Amino acid sequence: MADVKKEVLEIIAAKTSLDVAVLEPAALLADLNIASLDVVEIVFALEEKFDIQIPFNANKAKTEFATVGDVVRAVEALVTERSDSN
Amino acid sequence: MRRVVITGRGVVSALGIGVEGFWTALSGGRCGIGPIVNFPTDRLTVKIAGEVRDFDPTAHFDAKRIGLMDRISQFAVVASREAVAQSGLVFADGVGGRTATIIGTGVGGMTTVDDSYKKLYGENGQRVHPFTIPRFMANAPTSLITMEHGLTGPAYTIASACASATHAIGHAYQLVRGGVVDVAVTGGAEACITFGTMKGWEAMRVMSVDCCRPFSRNRNGMVLGEGAAVFVLESLESAHARGADILAEVIGVGMSADARDITAPDVNGAARAISAALADARLNPEDVQYINAHGTGTAANDATETQAIHQAFGFHARRLAVSSSKSMFGHALGAAGALELLATVEALRHGVAPPTIHFGEPDPVCDLDYVPDTARDLDIRVALSNSFAFGGLNGVLAVAKF
């Protein structure tokens, strides 16, 4: 799972031109100037990378995907779910 | 400048084919959104839409013509027949040459595009239907309407995504008002509820999987719709001269571009279009009683549109009735502005503000009177219809009781 977290952070960093170092789990996406359209692109990149489906709705972005940690946890859970079902 | 009146209107929508059924459903708060039935949805996350149900092309066209017509053009021509028949106009003796045909569409014949790609890429097919190109070209609905009625004046399609029909009707209004033509057959059409289009909208992450709840706190996105609405606009002089039944008057149009973001709506751009429509119609804010909102049911649109109405109307904003018909027939994209102008015109004529259905609970950032759940009797003398498109292109039409 450490690898998943590392890869998620790298994808977020690549899409936002932010340094991985600022992507603390508690950091709010809004504070990092990551807009909902950026999150849509990040979610797409994560889905393609990990072959998962993230049930993300931009209309609820503020409550469901508020922090960097929210994104990491969501991907980790889905990757686990996928490997369990294999 | 000449006054411009509406002397005919027709519709194909998720709330029925024909104006009478459309208005009965709309004023009755009936929902036309449901599970997609026209193609398999097992690979979709969003499985609902405002589809036109029970549309049988063979009931409207002979087999030879159907081969030339994508679903979008079938909708457009059927709606135009109702509008032209109601107007009583006969396009002979030069009248056809003094008639413009201006139709809005977001994407053109998408069913044809989708079917063709499926055949080529999905099934490794060698060929597509010989009329693939004339079916999917964006001007096909416009061209087929000109051919149907013999309209030989200026004719073209206007494309501005969700504002296409509003821009088309606004532009047709200006052509009649300015004396370029005496009559315009105008409106919008869209029929892009296909597997490929749904996948594209799913990827935007702005779609609701269960319901369209505009302006409600628990709203969770938009729902795709389809259909067509067509109007006959005519100079007042021409309508009077032939003793036509006048349904309403078009009194102004406002247009603007946000010039900011390709998807995010902008308060200032929307407010400028509303204010431009009021100025064009020489209205004060307090002259308006009803707004048929763009009201898509997304978090962003509904809050932004509410702020824009506040900005344009000031203290009068809270006295307006504002409702979203998309709660009933979904977001018909390039046809939306035409379907919603029809809702607005019928609201004027019947003295009834149609509701915003599925209204759950108020949202602090949407603090206007959205006519929740049930239609309301209202003496509407002047009304607006708002359209705000992806790409930041805005259009607002103003209509008055005649």
What does this structure look like?
The complex is a heterodimer of chains A (86) and B (402). By secondary structure, chain A is mainly α. Chain A contains 4 helices and no strands. Chain A has one domain: ACP-like (Non-ribosomal Peptide Synthetase Peptidyl Carrier Protein, Chain A, Orthogonal Bundle). Chain B folds into 2 domains: 4-241, Peroxisomal Thiolase, Chain A, domain 1; 251-400, Thiolase/Chalcone synthase (Peroxisomal Thiolase, Chain A, domain 1). Chain B has helices spanning 19-27, 63-66, 71-87, 110-122, 132-136, 140-149, 164-177, 195-204, 236-241, 267-280, 299-313, 326-329, 336-350; strands spanning 4-13, 16-17, 34-35, 48-49, 99-104, 155-158, 183-190, 227-235, 248-257, 290-292, 321-323, 352-353, 376-377, 382-389, 393-400. In chain B, helix 1 crosses helix 13 (336-350), helix 7 packs across helix 13 and helix 10 (267-280) packs across helix 11 (299-313). Classes of the chains: A mainly alpha (86), B alpha/beta (402). Chain A binds chain B through residues 35-37, 40, 43-44, 53, 55-62, and chain B through 45, 203-209, 219-221, 263-264, 298-300.
